[in-house]
Amino acid sequence: MHLEVLHKLPAVAWTVTRHGSCDFVNQFYVDATGLSADYCTAPLKTWRKTPSDLPPFLSVLHPDHKERVSHIFWDGVRSGGGWTFEAPFLHADGSYHWHFDRAVPVRDAQGKVLRFVGSSSDIQELRSERDSLVDRERRLLAIIDGSPNPIFLKDPDGRFLLVNREFERITGVSRDQIIGKTEDDLSKLREAGALRTNDRDVPRSGEVMLEELATTDIGPRWGAVRKFSIVDGDGRIYATAHITTDVTARKKAEEHLRLAEDQTRLILDSSLDAVITIDARDTITGWSKSAEDIFGWSCEEAVGKRIVDTIIPMQYREAHLRGCEHFLATGEGAILNRRVEIAALHRAGHEFPVELTVTAIRLESWHFTAFVRDLTDKRRVEEALREAREELTRVTRLTAMGQLSASIAHEINQPLTAVAANSDTCLYWLSTKEPDLAKARAAAQRLAKDARRASEIIARIKALMNKTPVEKAPLDIMDAIRDVMKLTQGEFRKHRITTLADLHDSVPRINGDRVQLEQVILNLVLNSIDSMMLVEDRPRTLSIRSRVLDDRMVEISFHDTGVGLDSTVVDRLFNAFFTTKHNGTGMGLAICRSIIEAHDGQISATPGAPFGAVFQFSLPTADGP
């Protein structure tokens, strides 16, 4: 807790241990009561001889109130809920002042009470006003009852709120009978239609009016009755008065309570984040221990400096000063009462990320409290998580390539075998007695073609297996699909799967990382192959289609004739660690989703019709928003 802040508070502030002994009083308390801080914070064992004994800092209570306050105090300590009471305190000048005392618990993360923090507000003036108010009300009622004219008060629904003795006399109805009722509820007043009509006119006109009433058969009535509306502080009409006196002012207790709550908030310094208090001149007035750790400035060094010269980076200083001037002029601040992430300046000169929350309170002038959380570790964790996610994506890609190892070996072996055969043929035509250059050239051309084919296969495998940084650039998604199809054609032949490709070269280019998108395509193709391996009662077919949605999105769909999807698992297919395969990891589709969403796209799966499954993803075009 920041003792410097507490000592400067213009109000009594103190803390009490969870056992009930006071361990801190601020200078305002010492000055007000004349008690020393050592006396007030004496250990529990030195003063508590009986269960009802109060701690020394409450010894200034008026003797007539100590027993009552003792019950309230110890009940609040035992329950952990704190306490609230009003009682007279002896001030250093020998006079008793009524105080409003309030304490709230400070709890740890598990909810255990660590201590109580409290404040005490001098409400002597408020009680004097309240007593004066009660006395004025008593005199007012005496005047009303002593008036020779009938006086009464009604709410907007016509219910009587107040009547005087003269009203009781002329109507023959006692106040106990009429309060809370209307004229319709009492037979003696039921025919007083003029009363009700004019009562309705008062709120509509909003003006004070005079009313002449005739004598009716319910008894003698009065004339020249003055009637007007009474409104509350918000301007709402809540009663119609008849010859009434001034409406007394509303209590100011709410304002006093609000001030006490503001003062209490200022003494709460239990946050692990940095807590910094600043005055209206941008001068640091409070600097918590966490602020020392986060920013490198000691409290002694920081207090008295301008905040703009201490922890705000150069590029934000002008905006900070403009924001302060705007708030002091208008009471409006763009960052007040909000969490914002921004760069802060360390004493060593480097910038680091923080989360900032600023609140403002007006006492004699504006004061600001800044709560600052260092986000450096959070950023490191986020970066480590990003790197781990990329590595997991690569491992998953390598796993998929492992499933293709036999097919890849076959695909590479074919052109290499052809290379060897064409090499022998070329040598043969060159080694004859009369070399046939035309046939040797043809064999050499076939050799070069097969060598390029083998090189292309190896290049595609290398691109998918390499650990390369994510790089987004405009690319032809059709080319990526065709490369994957070439890589997996051995698997299609092995499992007797027919591929139907409806791919349009006119499809716009998309902006993305080619390796990552080829990984998505490869994963979806391998899943389709797996789902069709056991199908024997129908042709095994994989249909791949492309189309453009609204000239802004490219959609690619994969429709197989495999075992299909259970509708109960569709919503979970892309969740991490969820799999429908016996030996699956549950990461393939989850990584596919993260890759597609990182490209601002969407991926989904639905049961196929009449069988199989449809996986599709959509990506924005390179020219799109």
UniProtKB/TrEMBL annotation:
Enzyme class: transferase
A family per Pfam: PAS_3
EC annotation from Swiss-Prot or TrEMBL: 2.7.13.3
Domain PAC: start-end pairs: 83-135, 204-259
Domain of life assignment: Bacteria
Protein name: histidine kinase
Gene Ontology terms, MF aspect: ATP binding; phosphorelay sensor kinase activity
Organism phylogeny: Bacteria, Pseudomonadati, Pseudomonadota, Alphaproteobacteria, Hyphomicrobiales
Boundaries of every Histidine kinase domain copy: 407-623
Domain named PAS: residues: 136-182, 260-313
Reactions catalysed, as given in the entry: ATP + protein L-histidine = ADP + protein N-phospho-L-histidine
PROSITE patterns, per the entry: HIS_KIN, PAC, PAS
SUPFAM superfamilies assigned to the protein according to its UniProt record, in alphabetical order: ATPase domain of HSP90 chaperone/DNA topoisomerase II/histidine kinase, Homodimeric domain of signal transducing histidine kinase, PYP-like sensor domain (PAS domain)
Assigned keywords, A-Z: ATP-binding, Kinase, Nucleotide-binding, Phosphoprotein, Transferase, Two-component regulatory system
Keyword ATP-binding listed: yes
Positions of transmembrane segments: none
GO biological process, one term: regulation of DNA-templated transcription
CDD domains: HisKA, PAS
InterPro entries: HATPase_C_sf, HATPase_dom, His_kinase_dom, HisK_dim/P_dom, HisK_dim/P_sf, PAC, PAS, PAS-assoc_C
